[in-house]
From TrEMBL:
Higher taxonomy: Eukaryota, Metazoa, Chordata, Craniata, Vertebrata
Family: Belongs to the L6 tetraspanin family.
Subcellular locations according to the entry: Membrane
UniProt keyword terms in alphabetical order: Membrane, Transmembrane, Transmembrane helix
Record membrane topology: Multi-pass membrane protein
Record carries keyword Repressor: no
Keyword Membrane carried by entry: yes
Signal sequence extent: none
Segments traversing the membrane: 12-30, 50-69, 81-107, 151-170
Protein's name in the database: Transmembrane 4 L six family member 21a
Main location: membrane
Species, as recorded: Seriola lalandi dorsalis
């Protein structure tokens, strides 16, 4: 496959992943679909780090746009464009790794929820894992189903960031080939 076509495929795949990351992070601000928790500051700290918006969103979307444009010119643009795509893909890797780290912390620490009458993070620094013991989830009384909500969205952020890292790393290798080997235009008859 031509390096330009590969760039376009990677970029087209990165677009929906970036949008999914942004949407997941925004939805995390509204547990149970209610704005009162965000307004009152009862949101998990990892949500405020904006890993899905900044890391998996903007820091991946901008490189995806450039990578897509690199693949537009004929077969793969030029060597300089492919070289720059390596740098842009590295920015995408950094953003996806930031999103990955925030998602892991969000899953590890668990949600901020009301336990009896106190808002706290009951699963943080506990001896047993709440991820494998769903009988423990009932201690969170408010917001309703907050544990499932956080696991689902942080899990989605984790999966999308892994795919983003892989795709951006492939583009770094693809860009290196495009930079070293040049374009793959057909020369035609001599």
């Amino acid at each position: 496959m031509c390096t330009g076509k590969c760039s376009r495929c990677i970029a087209v795949t990165l677009y929906p992943l970036a949008v999914i990351s942004i949407i997941c992070n925004i939805v995390l601000f509204f547990p149970g679909g209610d704005i009162k928790y965000a307004k009152d500051g009862h949101i998990t700290e990892e949500v405020k780090y904006m890993g899905g918006v900044v890391g998996g969103g903007i820091m991946v979307l901008i490189p995806a746009l450039y990578i897509h444009l690199t693949g537009q010119k004929g077969c793969c643009g030029n060597r300089c464009g492919m070289f720059l795509s390596i740098a842009f893909a590295a920015v995408g890797v950094a953003g996806a790794l930031y999103s990955f780290t925030v998602a892991v912390l969000g899953l590890q620490n668990g949600p901020l929820c009301k336990v009896l009458l106190v808002w706290k993070m009951p699963f943080k620094n506990s001896d047993r894992s709440y991820l494998s013991d769903d009988t423990w989830w009932g201690i969170c009384t408010e917001p309703k189903n907050i544990v499932q909500f956080n696991i689902g969205l942080f899990g989605t952020l984790l999966a999308t960031s892994c795919l983003q890292v892989i795709l951006c790393a492939i583009q770094m290798i693809n860009g290196l080939f495009g930079c070293l080997c040049g374009t793959c235009r057909t020369k035609g008859p001599l």
